[in-house]
Structure formats: structure tokens, C-alpha cells
Design brief:
The chain is mainly beta. Helices cover 12% and strands 37% of the residues.
């Protein structure tokens, strides 16, 4: 009964010349849905749930997928100590294929002592050409990862950060991350970031110091949300 009395009071208020909140009436505001529940009305509260209209935008979905928007072409520092396979089919998290990456620790220890890969658009673009995407509206990048043995350490997973003549508009990262031998989901928070131009969609870096023996790991379902 109390629910209906409150509802009638709100309805009556609508006929008394009350105006909508500017935040809800603005043509530039995001669409919202108002959900009124009995418990909330008893406490005098109305929950407003906003929905983000940004559709998932993939860095990598599957080998050869039209959903893929970035190319794993930025091998760092020279690619000599990293091998990469995007057609791996054994125990992937989802889809038909996932990514298997081998960081050759012995090779790296004898040379640059670190390595990584950038997913770029267009391929091999370190900020010298126009490219990238306007990802405004995304609030996070999510991906799934696991190590072959568990204990593999990635120093940094990064979004953006490309410089040059056409630099990325922002950068965000997480790290360091110690991988499990089971698939786990990871998130890079993009709230408050300027995503109007991102040519460096995703990257990882690590070094031989934190991986003294070996470092083989897997990635899958890399996407902006």
C-alpha cells in the first residue's frame, strides 16, 4: 500500500508544474532507465541506472576475424627474442584460436634484457602515420590471460602511449601481473582517459630479471568495452 501512495504522490507532482531535472532533459545526456523497487520506495530512494552505449571493440577476437582492429606488429625492442602464434587452438578461453607468446629469456639476457609487442593500427605505425581509432565512450579494456606453468610475470599491459608525429591521445596500464596457469580476466581502467585517438591498442612488456627461467603465456578476447 505504501508503494502505491508514493507512486500517486509522484504522479500528482507531475501535474503541479514540476520540471524535469536538467541532467535528464538535456539532449546531450546519455539515456537512462529508472527502476523503482518496493524496498527502495520504502527507504525513500529511487535508483537511476545508466547504460553505456559503447559496443565491444576488439583488439583480438579470433584469428582472421573481421572484429580484429589492431595488428601485433610492434615487436620491442627488435623482436629477436619473442615468438608469436595467433593460430593456437589448444585450451583457448573462447572462440577457435588464441595467442601463444614465447619470451626467450636466454636470448633476452644476452642482448636487450626486455621484450614486448604492441598491437598497432595501421601495422608498424609508431606514430609516423595517421591511423588509430576514436574510442570515446569505452570505460575499460578487458582481456584473458594465463601462463603455461603459472608464475610468469608481465611487467606492464598498456593501452595507448604511442608518440611521434601522430601521438595517442592518452595512455593507461596495469602491472606488474603474475599469471596463473588458469585463464583469468584482467581489466585496464579507462575512465577519465582521452580516447579520441588510439593507434596503440594494446601492448605487453616484460624482462629477464622477473622471469629468470622461462616465460610462455597466452592471451585471448582482448577488447574495449
Amino acid at each position: 500500500m505504501r508503494f502505491y501512495l508514493v507512486f500517486l504522490a509522484l504522479l500528482a507532482g507531475g501535474f503541479c508544474g514540476c520540471q524535469k531535472s536538467p541532467a535528464l532533459s538535456s539532449t546531450n545526456s546519455k539515456s537512462v532507465d529508472i527502476e523503482i523497487m518496493d524496498e527502495e520506495v520504502k527507504n525513500g530512494e529511487i535508483e537511476i541506472i545508466s547504460f553505456n552505449s559503447f559496443s565491444p571493440f576488439y583488439v583480438f577476437a579470433d584469428k582472421g576475424s573481421r572484429k580484429n582492429h589492431y595488428i601485433p606488429s610492434g615487436f620491442m625492442p627488435d623482436g629477436k627474442c619473442v615468438s608469436f602464434k595467433d593460430t593456437w587452438t589448444n585450451d583457448c578461453h573462447s572462440g577457435n584460436t588464441c595467442l601463444r607468446i614465447v619470451y626467450d629469456v636466454g636470448c633476452s639476457r644476452a642482448t636487450q634484457k626486455w621484450a614486448g609487442i604492441y598491437w598497432l593500427n595501421p601495422a608498424n605505425n609508431w606514430g609516423q602515420r595517421k591511423g588509430g581509432f576514436d574510442l570515446t565512450g569505452a570505460t575499460k579494456l578487458t582481456f584473458w590471460a594465463k601462463g603455461e606453468k603459472g608464475g610468469e610475470q608481465i611487467q606492464e599491459f598498456t593501452v595507448g602511449g604511442i608518440s611521434g608525429n601522430y601521438p595517442d591521445s592518452d595512455t593507461a596500464y596495469i602491472g606488474s601481473v603474475i599469471l596463473s596457469s588458469e585463464w583469468r580476466k584482467y581489466t585496464i581502467d579507462l575512465r577519465g582517459k582521452d580516447l579520441s585517438y588510439i593507434s596503440g591498442g594494446f601492448s605487453w612488456t616484460t624482462n629477464e630479471e622477473v622471469n629468470p627461467e622461462s616465460c610462455v603465456f597466452f592471451l585471448d578476447e582482448i577488447r574495449f568495452e
